[in-house]
Design a protein that fits this description.
alpha+beta; four-stranded antiparallel sheet
Length: about 180
């Protein structure tokens, strides 16, 4: 009898964990399918992720309404816990993908569970490092573009200085020749 009670408690605990896990995923699915937010966030054609097209609007409008919070870092952390990866982050947009996630497949969605927080800590740290590396590459490319523009400006400035010098010299020569 006591063993049966222990198994029932284990089953109840498992069900509570499943319900808690599905809470975030259910809210995410509801948010993604809500047409009210189609200009802010949309589902990828592959159905395995989404793009937040306007991060500021997402934080101000969508998060408080759908998740009762305004802390984007918490939302991002939850996505990491559920296996979503940040693939592309630009100025005001970000893309998240999870190969196990399919917005139109209830079976696939039910397979997504919150990962062990210790493993997730390292995975989150790795994702953050990867994001930093990507941002570093973008910055490096921008710096190179700025250097090229700087060189062009310097050449134009030198050329303009030479042209101005020649014009002044010509004017002086013309004035001297008139006398």
């Amino acid at each position: 009898m006591q063993q049966l009670q222990i198994h029932k408690q284990d089953a109840d605990l498992t069900q509570r964990k499943f319900d808690k896990n599905q809470g975030f995923i259910s809210k995410l699915k509801k948010m993604l399918l809500d047409q009210k937010f189609k200009d802010i966030i949309y589902i990828l054609e592959s159905n395995d992720g989404f793009i937040i097209m306007n991060l500021q609007q997402f934080i101000k409008q969508v998060l408080p309404e759908q998740f009762k919070q305004i802390n984007y870092q918490s939302f991002r952390r939850q996505l990491n816990y559920y296996g979503f990866k940040c693939l592309n982050k630009e100025k005001n947009s970000v893309e998240y993908v999870n190969k196990q996630f399919n917005i139109h497949s209830e079976t696939q969605i039910k397979k997504i569970i919150k990962q062990n927080s210790e493993v997730n800590y390292f995975e989150t740290s790795f994702n953050q490092l990867e994001e930093l590396r990507l941002n570093q590459l973008i910055l490096h490319k921008q710096i190179e573009e700025i250097k090229i523009l700087q060189e062009k400006i310097m050449k134009n400035t030198q050329n303009n200085t030479i042209v101005i010098f020649l014009q002044i010299s010509l004017e002086i020569f013309t004035i001297l020749n008139q006398k």
